[in-house]
Amino acid sequence: MTLPHKASLAPVSDRPGLITAPDAELICPANDIFDSANVTEHLAAAFETCADNTAMRAETVRILREAQKSGSKAIADAFATRPFEARPLTRSYTYLTDQLVGTAMRVSSERLHPLATPTQGERIAVLAVGGYGRAEMAPASDVDLLFLTPYKITAWAESVIESMLYILWDLRLKVGNSSRTIKDCLRLGAEDFTIRTAMLEQRYLAGDKALADELDKRLKSELFKGTEREFIEAKLQERDARHLKQGQRYMVEPNVKEGKGGLRDLQSLYWIAKYICGVQDVAELVPLGLFTPEEFQTFVEAEDFLWAVRSHLHLVTGRATEQLTFDLQVEVAERMGYKDRAGRRAVEVFMQRYFREATRVGELTRIFLTKLEAAHVKGAPLLERIFRRRPRVKDGYKVVHGRLDIADPDAFLSDKVNLLRLFEEGLRTGMLIHPDAMRLVTANLHLIDEDMRNDKEAQRIFLDLMLKHGNPERALRRMNELGVLSAFLPEFEPIVAMMQFNMYHSYTVDEHTIQCITNLAQIERGELVEALPLASSILEGGVNRKVLYVALLLHDIAKGRPEDHSILGAQIARKVAPRLGLNKAECETVEWLVRYHLLMSDMAQKRDVSDPRTVRDFAKAVQTVKRLDLLTVLTVCDIRGVGPTTWNNWKATLLRALHAETKRALDTGLEVLNRANRGAEAKKALRAELADWTKTDIKTETGRHYAPYWQGLPLSAHVEFAEMLRALEISGDPGAMEIRLHPDEDRDATRACFAMGDHPGIFARIAGALALVGANVVDARSYTTKDGYVTDAFWIQDAEGHPFEASRLPRLTQMIQKTLKGEVVAGEALKSRDKIKKRERAFNVPTHITFDNEGSEIYTIIEVDTRDRTGLLYDLTRTLASSNVYIANAVIATYGEQVVDTFYVKDMFGLKYHSESKQRGLEAKLRKAITEGAERAVS
Length: 939
What we know:
Blueprint: H1 30-33, H2 36-47, H3 53-81, H4 86-112, E1 125-128, H5 130-133, E2 143-149, H6 155-170, E3 175-181, H7 182-191, H8 193-200, E4 203-207, H9 209-224, H10 228-246, H11 263-277, H12 293-317, H13 326-335, H14 346-376, E5 397-400, E6 403-406, H15 409-413, H16 418-429, E7 432-433, H17 435-443, H18 450-453, H19 456-467, H20 472-482, H21 484-488, H22 509-524, H23 533-541, H24 545-554, H25 565-579, H26 584-595, H27 599-606, H28 612-622, H29 625-640, H30 649-668, H31 675-689, H32 695-703, H33 707-712, H34 715-731, E8 737-744, E9 749-757, H35 762-772, E10 776-784, E11 789-797, H36 809-820, H37 826-830, E12 848-852, E13 860-867, H38 872-882, E14 886-895, E15 898-906, H39 916-938
Parallel strand pairs: 2-3, 6-7
Antiparallel strand pairs: 1-2, 1-4, 5-6, 8-9, 9-11, 10-11, 10-14, 12-13, 13-15, 14-15
């Protein structure tokens, strides 16, 4: 039986309101995306055999699903061959969605619920809102619909909407919908800016066109008009909140949609322009004077690139993924055709383009808002949140809406050095630079030539920007964004927006450099005295600030090249430092600091600071206290500039210890590092601390340990082990063990002390037990006594890099005891725990293993640089134990996905590993353990 219907279905594209773009605006022919005539024909044929509405709806879904599947494939295939053409792509997905929505609406209203004589109240209009209304759809975008009725929704309208939604839901479309009257729209839009913004972009799709037109007219006259400032303020607050949540523009896993410099920032500009000026396209901002033609082109290029990236993200994951995580960065870079270059992976080249586009979006935002402010808002400037008196500007400048502008562009450009003076005046007055001034600078960067770079006045101004005004980061960041920094220092250009593809660095290389300088300026301003007492005291005592700032500016300038960036950076510094006006001695110091800027960090984090040889070698390298102080401050700023969570008390303690011991050696001579001297001091301190012990007990304790024990542990650990060893002797049980876990607040870690009878492999078993309880080992010391005991001290942190909460320690102690007693086999239990997360698998971390017999007087130092994972330390120490290697201590330095495990070892006879064949044999075993563990981790 055939159900009655109002009229035969005509192709959807013949109806008004839907996107019926010519093929030139789509990424492939319209009929490949949705053959409307063919779909209509199939629906008509299918309906002839349908017995009821349920069957008719099912046939509609079946036919539309086939059309949807083939259309989506056609779009995706075309995009794969033209991976940057985002605008045709978003139009194509909108076109496909329009056809699906339009067909569903007409089937629902004309075939499922036909109405022969509708009343005035039985009218309905379907509108696209939000991004769908703007006709910008990514592959997995939501389909936001507004069902508009003149009065309270009728039973017929409710049936139409319900049937239509069921069809769309069955097509697996993510439909966001609302049913409202015009009165509802005006009321809700007045209360909620999100709703108001969505309706700003409403686009008629189907149904009663007059009803849609009435809404459009009344929104403009009754809701939008007169509320422009209110809307702009709301959008700015929304943007600030979004940026705060998502992080800075240079965060290495950015959110393409919501992050700073992302698509939402561009969309916010469009919303404001449409609300204020009624524009339907960003191109209309050019004749209005809000954008120059060049800025409009920048907008288009940035928007196209970001939409392309977002669309590839959706296609790779099959869902609305907005964050460009590490694993997805690799896939998107490959899809977009990026290739490896010398010293850089394709993903790093791709991400540099991404961050440069994000920077341009930030500039467009600043220009647009300031222009809008001048043209449309006559009150106080929108961005000037705090009113305060400012100093008068120098001749040649003027103040426009609280910003520093140029009075006479021709006069300004007559002296090239003015391109730097502008930033100096900005710092002096505390004013933001007006976008017109920024435009003038960027349009005349060619004036910054060799003559200007060698101009004494230009050199003075550039150094003063860092040294004189107290907030160098502000000038440097603005100069970097406008291209002035790269023009004045061409060597800086390659690292602009350069991403280092690893989990350790949170910022691009240029932003990391500015973050380092920010830290130095904060120390100088006295803002970090409590957090950084050593660096603060060094600066207070007086150093060559010029050398320090220039060294920080140049320390990573050679990143991203095949050569060692420290060596190449020193060569670049040798050329750049004189050009900045430094004298010969200052240039030599800058060159040395750049060449060895990683030395102190490596010594502190990868070597045993308590070993006299470590301090002696470091002291010989730095040679003078002056260099030591400069390198210490540079190292602190460098580590803190890596990311917001990189610096901690553990690193601070290591650096302070290395600085103190090295300074003492340089001041009084290297003989103060003698082991015997330090051992005598430690024993004297222990006797004072154990004043209530008998002389016999104290003599036993001080006599049972070898020399390394006394210099490798703090007094508190010596006291703890003394008590633990005495408890073991009192127990008389040869199998007894003592375990004590305590927070070590000075080091941001938990100290785990173990004392028991010595037996082979105990270090590895402890490492396995700690891995099982989720502890990351950051340092470990193992000492055997002359009377058969072993005392091991491990410093551990939780997965977030913090000490374990005190409440968890009893439970951790019990679990560790069970493992050490053999009740849990660590090797088996760890197999299911050492998986590498998917987002981290894209990193390439080659394994390097080195043997060093010069870095310690009595131990061979084995350094294993490889990919970090749960259970790695256990695998390495178990391998060494099975080869009869005695591990005296282990130092663990983690850099994101990379870890450097350093072991101080001796062979079973107490000798170093001098034999090259033994070294190669050990290396082969360690590599096998790493490889087998890595295979488990990715399986």
